User: Fold this.
Amino acid sequence: MAVAAAAKIAEVRETTRVERIGAHSHIRGLGLDDSLEARHVSQGMVGQVSARRAVGIVLQMVRDGRIAGRAVLLAGQPGTGKTAIATALAAALGYDTPFTSMAGSEIYSLEMSKTEALTQAIRKSIGVRIKEESEIIEGEVVEVQIERPATGVGTKVGKLILKTTDMETVYDLGGKMIDSILKEKVQSGDVITIDKATGKITRLGRSFARARDYDATGQQTRFVQCPEGELQKRREVVHTVTLHEIDVINSRTHGFLALFSGDTGEIKPEVREQINGKVAEWREEGKAEIIPGVLFIDEVHMLDIECFSFLNRALENEMAPIVIMATNRGITKIRGTNYKSPHGIPLDLLDRTIIVPTTPYDEKELKEILSIRCEEEDCQMSDNALTVLTRISKETSLRYGMQLIMTSSLIARKRKAHEVDVEDIKRAYQLFFDEGRSVQFLKEYQQEFMFNEMEGEDKMDVN
Amino acid sequence: MSVDWFSQLQKARKKCIVQNNLKRIHFELDDNREMVEEYDLNTNVVTRRAWRINRQLKGENSWEIEIGDPEPSYDSDNKYIIRENSNQPFITRRNTRINLEWRIRNLPYPIEVYSVLVDKELSALIVQTTNKKYYKKIIVPDLQRLCIELEQENVSFSHRFNTLIITYKKPRRLIDFEKALLEEIKKIKPEDSEEILKNCKIS
Assistant:
């Protein structure tokens, strides 16, 4: 039953999602078959067969949940799909398994120390599945009344009338509840459940009795029966929280309100220790289950030597998640030292990791990726144009090629064409420089720019 | 829990204080559950019974009132998320020597509307109204703990001053059990309540 309820929630969430297209939004999974063999083109993933297969095995390891604290390093040139593979892994894990994605430079903050940020990231990646009995209100909305005071200031007053086939009750709404009712656009005729302790609203559908209210209803409208019996019910719900969330709830100084404001500050080690003990206790009693997740650190070379040695230690904890790191560096300085090391990562940490290399795409794969992106960005492209775009991507970079899809499609739309043609690609190519041509341009017109006296000696130091 | 409620209570760790003609007994059961009973010393009837609920995630523990009036809550105006409107029906329980009683206040409808039926499958009393305005499933923990089935002939109800009063005649076995428990309780030596208050840490 819990599974069905979860599916229901996911469905409701789907319809209200705001769709924006990101760099990796075409990825829906790792594209592996049942024997974890990578299909060449599947679920938005193209090529990189051996890397995907390797990550598929890591996925199996995470799903089994028995191995703690392993590290995987995705190493490869820029634009070879490292982040894509990590995104795919997150998608394949499903929403119940915690997946934390962070960039290496995120840990540098004035509000908390580096190790605190890392600890929080690690604890965000460990889920605890707890069964808890909670009180819910389930019924059909008869009426929602929300009144603002006439002066415009002051608290809003809200009332909600709910009914089942057997009874009807008037509820007073608190300020937070009013906001979420407005946000969810709850209206009379909806069948909803409200978690009494947290105020979380779940819309189950519209009541059959209201099926004839409108001639036209949206495709997603689901009709359900009006519930029976009492409005208020006790139900055992299974929910997954991360260790970090439990930490925050139990850290006295902030309380659970900090979860919403996002300002959690540093959490005392005693609190963490206490919670580890408690969770272990629940686990023994069979009340809770630990779901080790994945921590993904992109641009891991941005961590410094202290963080690396901290990670070394943290990985040995039995509560540690699987850590996946990605870097595009070769042999370079470890941040915070003058020593050079492969990938900018100290050798002792490298020794603990399994390294998955990604390799540059060949032309056929590039073409495949570009056509997937075209589909994702809702853009029709002629075969010739796609070939030209592939060539451009091959010579410049895949990222630049992907940028040209949207720009050239806008150019094509300007001339009222249905399809992007070679002309449009050419136009976009002229309008927007890639990195190579930009450098070329700078070299030619160096004299006319400001501060041009600096002659090439001071190379940018990203470390 | 139905195994043998009486011996469970016998084995429980008990503490007791007497205050203003009220005797409070704190039971700590083997499975870590906690219960408090309050007896009126004149009538020897339980006036309040409450269970401690341990929340798993959040630290705050609260009491669930089984018999008697609910704890008054202060400053609840600002904190609540959602709650029943104050003129909605609410139910309280009280025991007398021979009856179990429920009062449902704020029910303005005439007496003909109500029906109180025993549902043996759910082992609960079902309160219904023909106008579909109120419905309540009442579970009777006293009888459940002793594995006594509900009988329709023990139920009666009346309606006065916007209040529906449901009475359930105590079965013989429950009366015997309560008598035995009372004897058990009389054996516990009450602690000095003044002394306890002095040692109590004020947080």
Observations:
- The domain at 133-237 of chain A is CATH 2.40.50.360 (OB fold (Dihydrolipoamide Acetyltransferase, E2P)).
